[in-house]
UniProtKB/TrEMBL annotation, chain A:
<dbReference type="InterPro" id="IPR001851">
    <property type="entry name" value="ABC_transp_permease"/>
</dbReference>
<feature type="transmembrane region" description="Helical">
    <location>
        <begin position="226"/>
        <end position="245"/>
    </location>
</feature>
<feature type="transmembrane region" description="Helical">
    <location>
        <begin position="306"/>
        <end position="328"/>
    </location>
</feature>
<keyword id="KW-0997">Cell inner membrane</keyword>
<feature type="transmembrane region" description="Helical">
    <location>
        <begin position="56"/>
        <end position="75"/>
    </location>
</feature>
<keyword id="KW-0812">Transmembrane</keyword>
<feature type="transmembrane region" description="Helical">
    <location>
        <begin position="176"/>
        <end position="194"/>
    </location>
</feature>
<keyword id="KW-0472">Membrane</keyword>
<feature type="transmembrane region" description="Helical">
    <location>
        <begin position="27"/>
        <end position="44"/>
    </location>
</feature>
UniProtKB/TrEMBL annotation, chain B:
<feature type="transmembrane region" description="Helical">
    <location>
        <begin position="22"/>
        <end position="40"/>
    </location>
</feature>
<feature type="transmembrane region" description="Helical">
    <location>
        <begin position="306"/>
        <end position="326"/>
    </location>
</feature>
<keyword id="KW-0472">Membrane</keyword>
<dbReference type="Pfam" id="PF02653">
    <property type="entry name" value="BPD_transp_2"/>
</dbReference>
<feature type="transmembrane region" description="Helical">
    <location>
        <begin position="225"/>
        <end position="245"/>
    </location>
</feature>
<keyword id="KW-0997">Cell inner membrane</keyword>
<protein>
    <recommendedName>
        <fullName>Autoinducer 2 import system permease protein LsrC</fullName>
    </recommendedName>
</protein>
<keyword id="KW-0812">Transmembrane</keyword>
<feature type="transmembrane region" description="Helical">
    <location>
        <begin position="257"/>
        <end position="274"/>
    </location>
</feature>
Amino acid sequence: MSDIDLDQRPANNRSAVLKSRLTSWDSIILVLTVLVLIIASFTVDNFGTSRNFTFMVLDLLPIILIALPMTMIIVTGEIDLSVASTLGLTSSMMGWLWNQGLSIESIIPLCIVIGAICGVVNGFLITGLGLPSLAVTIGTLALYRGLAFVVLGDGAVADFPWNYTGWVTGTIGDGAVPNVLILIVVLALIFGIVQHATPFGRSLYAIGANAQAAHFSGIRVARTKFWLYVASGAVAGLVGVLWTLRYSSARADNGAGLELAVVAAVLLGGVSIFGGKGSLPGVLGGVVLLTALQNALRLEDVSGQALNIVTGSLLVLSVLLPNVTSAVRGNWHRRKLRQASATSAQ
Amino acid sequence: MTATSLEAPPSKRFSLGGLLKTRELGIVLALTLLVAYTAIDNSRFLSGQSIRDNLLNTAILAVMATGQAIVVITRNIDLSVGSVLGISAFAVATLMSNNQDLPMIVALLAGLAIGAVAGLVNGVLVRYGKVPALVVTLGTLYIYRGITYSWAGGSQVNADELPRHFLTFANDSILGVPWLVLIALVVIAAGSVMMRNYRIGRELYAIGSSPPAAELAGIKVARNLLTAFVLSGALAGLAGVLYAARFGTVDAAAGNGMELNVVAAVVVGGVAVFGGSGSVWGAALGALLLTVIGSALAVLDINQFWQQAIVGALIILAICADRLVAVRIARSLRKRDAHV
């Protein structure tokens, strides 16, 4: 009996430490991000210019938008690896529909709907049939990318109207603030409020912590997850449109491999892959940190591919550090308990 | 009470084994149908050259799928295999171009060693760092690829810099079987026997079925998990050597994105992502099926672009089939329990 007591106390303590460590990882990331921005703008030529700022925001755009619903999905303990392929499929469909002579005003909402339908398929397979999300979205990753190639082949559609492509790459009143930044801010606010200030948002954490307990406390687990996948698909569809307009090129391979970058950014931002933990500000910090580092190194003529080492190490450290510190503290705590029981026995 | 709990495991193992046999039979059936249909359309599909090409194309994927299956059976995943292939292929190609006289066996061992070290890092982080395998191997996917890029820069090793015996290795054959295929067959056979008949294999299945139960049963989880990751890494390293020998030209991007093909082969081959079920040779069959689909599309004159979509649909179909099997097992177990 006393054995069990001794074992349980450090376990409780460990989870408490883990929790505080994870929340502080958010702040580490945010501080790191600010530091990188400040140091880079002083030491790297052209980093602080408004032109570079626009480029940075444009580089940020796809990852940050897809990371918004991805954060919610990972908080519930699931994952969506098909986002980049959904992006590619909507990009292909956009080119195909444009070739069919539809107006761009009707193509854009249609593409978002196509993205949402991709999300519906994921959501149905995962919540309707109860299949594991990792396997399902690896399947739809291949399926949607394949369909993108079926639609458009290896060709490209490039003659989109200039006023739309110009809007995506342009700035407000030709100033320093890019047009798409409004979109990022508005969507981040919406997703942030939903995740952190509504009952729905709280229920996501409950599901991630223990889906069964959440179900018994009256949360509609399957329905919640279903709509998260639809949201994820719709946002990926929107990013497909923006990607196509930014490069003024609809191609089937647009955004290939982006899913891993998004997942890496979300995890780097302190979201637990097991669900139940993490915050949107941390994720936003993670995305900005990665993009700013990449941008600064590129201006310094360092190969962007070498930066992979930094990305990967940060990703592993973001989970490793809290575990190591909590293990050390757990050991320390247990030793103290043992000493205390030894002295009381005497 | 003790009697029932003693009786339950053998009966479960029996029904699981029976159902799994049908599961792999399904892949064989799909493969047979595909080959038969394609061969009727174009008999050259069954010519020696065509079969040889298919097997050569499968070999590298099957070697990696063997390692991946072992890891997935333990309820983990190794996403870094594509990057491990890349770093091993580039390292071995550089080694061979600088030392033209090195025998082939040294190249193979070097690849295995590089991969084993990469796998060991993964395993240590997963087990002792308590970091989920998905996160660790996603991280090392980037790290290993980044190391290869910073080492290679923009350079590549071309076929004319490599020794002749290294390049001909891919196409040389012994008793009509190409070395590449022979190595793959040996790896698959050894992996299957290990997982089926040896203690470590059974323990890996036990870990995948329920990690805490395995720990309570006295299985050395840490050592076994390390072994699984080292094996997966070493086989990806071996695949890197085979890749370099087969394609001759190696740059830092070799094997980029291959991890998804490998996981796809494993899932199609009937290894459940929740661990504890499936087999190595099933995963190898999955790799063969994915490769044959590609070449069959070309022979049938179907738009090549359909290939990836079909692979995706197959993966989903495979998971649905696994789910169906799992539901049926659960139901039959419940019925059996009710009788007791």
